[in-house]
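Researcher: Quick test of sequence recovery. Tokens follow.
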């Protein structure tokens, strides 16, 4: 099947099979299942997250004998998929998850779709019913290739044992090159049981799959000219810059041009938050300065970003004065949402390195951008509308303060994984990200339940780093069973539950847009129904629940105890730690651009629309 490339950003170098030409290893006589495990060893997969079941069971027997592949037995296949994603995002290597056929495979659909949206290199291996039974509605049969086709970069159905080694090699190659993404390998049970031979490296055959990594020199020169000619440029940086390992090149280009930098939700840490050129995160809940910089810009240089709706707001009113330079490794992204004046197809690292040289050449010729007036405006907005929050008048815990202190007290190099909702936005605002791959979240899909298993995967891949999961009480109740996995497998993550007793972001929208009618967003009680628990009763009690799963658990309700409990959590490294932070339920995420409105309508706080004066639109 011919392959076409689809991409944002590039890839980290990944151990994988070579394309022929090398002498074959000694031929081994093995089963298909043994061939699968040997193939995983050869491509450099050191950790697999999964659950055995009937169709995949033959693969689990030889895995028991492998000294190079660690299998982590999760409690739900969704946990396996998100753990593989967290592993990949933290390490830059391909994450691997495994499940059986039917419901095992379909439970992987959400994390596969999540990895697809966020361009995460993932290989999902599923068992399938015997090849003779495919299409008969056999027990635990599901057409997982058909189901996942829209949300995978590619997928394979393997029905012959001899095809396993080259399929695994190709899957890892496709997942980790070009625009990274998830690849599914579905293997029939009889292919796992059959006798075959194993030799390495196999010959790969991927006609039509040739990702373009080197940008066109003419387009680079055109982009450099626009940069030095612009009066109000912005570097709009997406997650592709992190995936390309291009953060050093980005810093050189930014400091060379002195243009302001915005980093999207998926790109936090690509450029240091503390750098004076960094104006914040753009988007629906982005910093006022970042949102406005894009709106007022006369040039946007987008690298590894995709102009998604959360950044652009109402698309036809986005950045009305700006010319667009759009660099991406996936040609399908360029012009998809916003027409590009200078399209550049290529690996973000190579694009940025070439742009540095082209801008230096412009400077040598006496062409240097003058952005003094632009920075005067940017600094005024930054000073007038900084990110901030008010402490609750009743003396209860502020969720923003909790998250801010976790970030301030965390050891250097700590990796943070967040769920989805208010706590995710506060974690993006009030923790400083100075390094790439220290912020993991579900950006495109917005998957509740991502944080705990993703943190587990990150810790498994980076065992010497502290890993905090910042989770909401709603998200936590979707995948918290993976704390059992962490406790039993020596994966000591730390979890902060930002517990406001509600589905917080949905409740915020109900407050703002639904006349404070809180329909089905209260979590801690039966919401006035008959038989609801007594007031003050917490169902579930997260401390008791976490202790039952083998964790050290703490509840924090008093701001005076905040630092003490965070430092206690940081000091415990022999088991998972969970802190149930009881926070004020009415805290909201600001700034905000309401869905479907223009970024010009950004609100700095409730009832506070920024005043930018009358002289920025010229």
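Model:
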């Amino acid at each position: 099947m011919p392959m076409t490339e689809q991409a944002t950003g590039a890839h980290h170098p990944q151990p994988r099979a070579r394309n022929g030409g090398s002498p074959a290893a000694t031929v081994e006589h093995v089963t298909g299942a043994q061939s699968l495990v040997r193939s995983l060893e050869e491509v450099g997969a050191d950790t697999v997250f999964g659950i055995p079941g009937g169709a995949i069971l033959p693969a689990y027997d030889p895995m028991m004998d492998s000294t190079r592949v660690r299998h982590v037995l999760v409690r739900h296949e969704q946990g396996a998929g998100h753990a593989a994603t967290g592993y990949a995002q933290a390490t830059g290597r391909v994450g691997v998850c495994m499940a059986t056929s039917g419901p095992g495979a379909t439970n992987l659909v959400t994390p596969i779709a999540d990895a697809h949206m966020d361009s995460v290199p993932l290989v999902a291996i599923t068992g399938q019913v015997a090849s003779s039974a495919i299409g008969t509605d056999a027990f635990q049969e599901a057409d997982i290739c058909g189901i996942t086709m829209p949300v995978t970069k590619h997928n394979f159905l393997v029905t012959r044992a001899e095809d396993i080694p080259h399929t695994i090699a190709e899957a890892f190659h496709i997942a980790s090159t070009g625009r990274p993404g998830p690849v599914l390998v579905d293997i029939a049970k009889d292919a796992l049981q059959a006798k075959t031979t194993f030799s390495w490296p196999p010959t790969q055959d991927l006609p039509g799959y040739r990702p373009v990594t080197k940008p066109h020199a003419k387009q680079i020169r055109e982009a450099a000219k626009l940069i030095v000619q612009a009066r109000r440029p912005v570097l709009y940086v997406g997650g592709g810059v992190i995936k390309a390992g291009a953060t050093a090149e980005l810093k050189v280009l930014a400091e060379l041009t002195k243009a302001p930098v915005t980093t999207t939700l998926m790109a936090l840490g690509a450029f240091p938050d503390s750098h004076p050129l960094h104006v914040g995160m753009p988007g629906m809940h982005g910093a006022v300065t970042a949102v406005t910089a894009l709106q007022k810009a006369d040039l946007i240089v987008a690298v590894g970003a995709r102009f998604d709706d959360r950044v652009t707001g109402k698309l036809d009113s986005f950045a009305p004065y700006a010319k667009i330079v759009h660099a991406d490794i996936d040609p399908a992204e360029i012009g998809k949402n916003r027409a590009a004046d200078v399209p550049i197809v290529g690996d973000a690292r190579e694009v940025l390195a070439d742009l540095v040289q082209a801008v230096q050449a412009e400077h040598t010729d006496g062409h240097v951008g003058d952005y003094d007036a632009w920075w005067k405006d940017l600094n005024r907005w930054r000073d007038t509308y900084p990110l901030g929050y008010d402490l609750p008048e009743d003396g209860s815990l502020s969720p923003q303060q909790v998250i801010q202190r976790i970030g301030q007290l965390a050891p250097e190099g700590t990796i943070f994984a967040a769920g989805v909702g208010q706590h995710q936005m506060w974690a993006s605002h009030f923790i400083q990200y100075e390094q790439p791959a220290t912020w993991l979240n579900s950006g495109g899909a917005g998957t509740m339940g991502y944080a705990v298993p993703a943190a587990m995967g990150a810790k498994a891949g980076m065992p010497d780093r502290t890993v905090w999961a910042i989770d909401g009480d709603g998200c936590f109740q979707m995948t918290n069973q993976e704390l059992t996995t962490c406790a039993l497998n020596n994966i000591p993550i730390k979890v902060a539950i930002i517990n406001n007793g509600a589905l917080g972001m949905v409740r915020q929208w109900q407050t703002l847009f639904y006349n404070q009618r809180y329909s089905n967003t209260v979590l801690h009680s039966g919401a006035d129904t008959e038989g609801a628990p007594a007031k003050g009763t917490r169902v579930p009690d997260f401390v008791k629940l976490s202790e039952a799963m083998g964790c050290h658990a703490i509840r924090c309700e008093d701001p005076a105890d905040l630092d003490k409990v965070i430092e206690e959590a940081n000091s415990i490294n022999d088991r998972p730690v969970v802190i149930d932070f009881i926070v004020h339920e009415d805290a909201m995420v600001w700034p905000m651009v309401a869905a479907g409105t223009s970024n010009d309508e950004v609100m700095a706080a409730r009832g506070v629309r920024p005043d930018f004066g009358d002289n920025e639109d010229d």
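Confidence is low (pLDDT under 50) at residues 1-22, 527-531, 614-618.
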